[in-house]
Design brief:
Blueprint: E1 2-8, E2 12-18, E3 25-32, H1 39-51, E4 54-61, H2 71-87, E5 90-95, H3 99-109, H4 114-137
Parallel strand pairs: 1-4, 4-5
Antiparallel strand pairs: 1-2, 2-3
Amino acid sequence: MKKIGLDVGEKTIGIAISDALGWTAQGLTTLHWDEQDYSTAREDLKQIIDDHQITEAVVGFPKNMNGTVGPRGEASQVFASWLEQEFQLTSHLWDERLTTMAAERVLLDADMSRKKRKKVIDKMAAVMILQSYLDSKQ
């Protein structure tokens, strides 16, 4: 039962997948999409879900620092519902506060250039979202 981790933004979706046992998350890719048109991500997501036999999705849920849900959090809720309906997956919203900042710090510590960081930051955030979810289930 593999899981997919998603860091959903307005223009990109960072994607990570778990191993079959649900112990580790690995970065897979970053999709470019238009948040106003979900069909721009449908085929790529379907291919990944089918190829990796995904049964559950963990969607980053960006809450405000005070715990309230703002526009980005609401967009994640809508996306998670769409995933469930479109692909018959169980979806989980997972608090992603500070994951992008933590991913940036990891990449900075690895001495990665700004240009390279920009290409992988969403995928790294998806890994952190999924891994923290997996860790909480151990």
